Amino acid sequence: MEMSDLYQLGRRLAEIALEDMGANELGLAPGEFLVLQDLYLNARSPIKDIARRTGLAQSRVSTSVRSFTERGWVTTSADPDDGRKTLVDLTDGIRAAGAQRRAAGANRALAAALAAADDDERAALIGALARLHQLLVAGHAPRRFPDPATAPPAPDGTRPI
After folding, report:
1. For residues 52-85, b (16+ Cβ closer than 10 Å) or e, as one string?
2. Per residue of the chain (161 residues), what is the pLDDT tens digit?
3. Are the beta carbons of 90 and 40 closer than 8 angstroms?
4. pTM
C-alpha cells in the first residue's frame, strides 16, 4: 500500500463516520463536527481549550460556536474566573442526540460501506479496523495537525508557523 492509498483510506473512513454521525444532514463541515465532538467529550470549556484540543484555529472555533449558538445547539457564558474568556457548553438536547448517535456504534455504517464483501470477509474487516483502532488510536492523545513547537526545523533552521 502506498502512503497516498493509506491517506485516502483514512479520508474515506472519516467520510463514512461523519455521514453516519449526521454531519451531512446537519450541514456540518469536518471542523465544525470536531468542535461539537470536543464539547461532547469535554463538556463546558473555554474556546481556547477547544482550539488546543482540536488543533483548529481559535478564530475557526469561535466562528463555529457563533453558528451553533444561532442554531440553539450551545450556550455561552463568561468565565467567572476570567470574564475575558467565553465558556461554551452543549445544550441538553444536543448532548442527548450525541449520546444516541454514539450508542449506535460504527458496525452498521461499516457493514453498509463494505456491502461488496461477503459476511465472513465483512466481519473480518470490521474486526481488523477495531484492532487497528486499538493499536493506533486508543490511549494516544489526538493530534490533528503538526505542533509547530515540536516540529523539526526546516533545512534553513526555521520552524513552521
Report:
1. ebbebeeebbbebbebbeeeebbeeeeeeeeeee
2. 899 989 999 989 988 888 887 777 788 888 898 899 899 999 899 999 999 998 899 999 999 999 999 999 999 999 888 888 889 999 999 999 888 888 878 888 899 999 999 999 999 999 999 999 898 887 776 555 444 455 556 666 665 55
3. yes
4. 0.67
Question: Do 36 and 21 contact (CB within 8 A), yes or no?
Answer: no
Amino acid of residue 148: P
d(CA 44, CA 53): 13
d(CA 154, CA 88): 37
Write out the three cell numbers for 105. 456504534
Q: For residues 96 and 91, give the distance between their C-alpha atoms in angstroms, rounded to a whole number.
A: 9
Closest alpha carbon to 38 in 23, 55, 26 = 55
